[in-house]
Amino acid sequence: MKFTQLNVEQCHAGAMLAEDIISEGGIVILKAGAELSEDRLKSLSNNGVKAISIVCEEKLSAEELEKRRHKIAKKMNKLFRRSDDDSYLAQMKEMLVEYYVSRG
Predict the structure, then answer these.
(1) 36 close to 55: Cβ distance less than 8 angstroms
(2) What pLDDT shows up at residue 20?
(3) Which one of 25, 55, 75, 89 is at 20 to 30 Å from 36 when CA atoms are compared?
(4) What does DSSP assign to residue 16?
(5) Is residue 25 helix, strand or coil?
(6) What domains are defined for the chain?
């Protein structure tokens, strides 16, 4: 997952937090994965939060996505080289390829 750190004023509603926001007292204000709304952004700003980390959506072309899939599949084929006779392992290999392709 790719993320970037921005000033609260630069963020927009709909962005997703990449990391927990923790107060100076160690209390979790918002958990990673929370979707930011205008009200939440105002509240963060009003409470002195200056910068936050948000998830960046990575836009890959079909060609780049296929290159990534091929590279990951090659690694998985090495790890699962003896899985041809086991349908469960073959299925797990395919699931891992899709997982790692989607993660980036």
Answers:
(1) no
(2) 92
(3) 25
(4) B
(5) coil
(6) 2-56 (3.90.105.10), 62-103 (no CATH)
Q: What is the DSSP letter of 36?
A: P
CB < 8 Å & 24+ apart, contacts of 15-18? 15/54, 15/55, 16/54, 16/55, 17/52, 17/53, 17/54, 17/55, 18/53, 18/54, 18/55
If DSSP codes are grouped into helix, strand and coil, which group holds residue 15? Answer: coil
Q: Is the pLDDT of residue 44 over 70?
A: yes
Q: Are strands 21-22 and 2-7 parallel, antiparallel or unpaired?
A: unpaired
Place of tokens 């509240």: 43
Give the residue carrying structure tokens 């993660």. Answer: 103
Q: Which residue has the tokens 């926001």?
A: 21
Assigned token pair, 12:
């927009």
pLDDT tens for 6-31 read 888 888 888 889 999 888 888 888 89
Structure tokens at 6: 């921005």
Whether the pTM exceeds 0.85: the reply is no
User: Which phi and psi (to 5°) does residue 77 adopt?
Assistant: -60, -35
